[in-house]
Amino acid sequence: MKKYFVAFVSVCLFISTTFAQTPKPPFWDDVQTIKKYDKMFAPPEHPVLFVGSSSIRKWDDAQWVFAKYNALNRGIGGAVTNDIIYYLNDLVFAYQPRQIVLYVGENDLMDNISTADSVYNRRLNYTMQ
Predict the structure, then answer these.
(1) What is the DSSP letter of 68?
(2) Considering Cα of 124, then 125, then 128, then 129, what sign does the dihedral take?
(3) CATH code (residue 59)
(4) Closest CA to 44 of 29, 66, 59
């Protein structure tokens, strides 16, 4: 009986580790939703791209206010600078924008450790890699 119990527990552990999901990066689901939306509704070619945090995302009428400039809004609520950098291929380069309006950085300063210089240095460290 003890053998069967050990075998059962071993199989359960194997199955749970085999099918365990790897953690997704922040805002993964938001970016996937944007990509699905782009498949349903073609984005404009070479837009003026608005990208950044919630100040951009919640600007519901940016595409209409700047319609004559072929505007496209691709903000992500709560994003920090590194999030936008992480998703550059999906949120910026995929659209081949002619201009970019970037508003991000406020959320980077929400803790007691970060300063404007440390946020700037994060960007420098990323671009030098």
Answers:
(1) G
(2) negative
(3) 3.40.50.1110
(4) 66
Q: What share of the chain is helix, strand, coil (3-state, %, to 5)?
A: 55, 10, 35
Number of domains into which the chain is organized = 1
Query: Is 19 inside any structural domain?
Result: no
| Domain boundaries, position 73 | 24-127
- Is position 17 within any domain? no
pLDDT per position in the chain (129 positions), as tens? 666 555 555 555 555 555 566 788 999 999 999 999 999 999 999 999 999 999 999 999 999 999 999 999 999 999 998 899 999 999 999 999 999 999 988 888 887 888 888 777 766 555 544
Closest C-alpha to 94, from 28, 41, 46: 46
Q: Residue 51 in contact with residue 99, Cβ under 8 Å?
A: no
Domain membership of residue 1 (yes or no) is no
